[in-house]
Amino acid sequence: FPYTPADAVLVEAAHLEAGLRLQAQRPDALFVDTFGEYALDALRSATGLPVVGAAEAAIAAATAHGSRFAVVTVWPSSMAWLY
Known about the structure:
single chain; 3 helices; mainly alpha; about 80 residues
């Protein structure tokens, strides 16, 4: 978990590495299972696969039900940089 912006760089690298390793399994797409959506652009660029993030998918689902919705979170405001 990235507690600081510097940690986020390491988390991005870890997600990119994991996605690159999964390429050997020849998936049709990749799903990043965290709302932090780490390394989406890097994975899209490096793998050429469709890459979907958890928040991206959730927001698309929410907008299918209406143009206004709220995000419920328990993170303190000190973690707002994650968003």
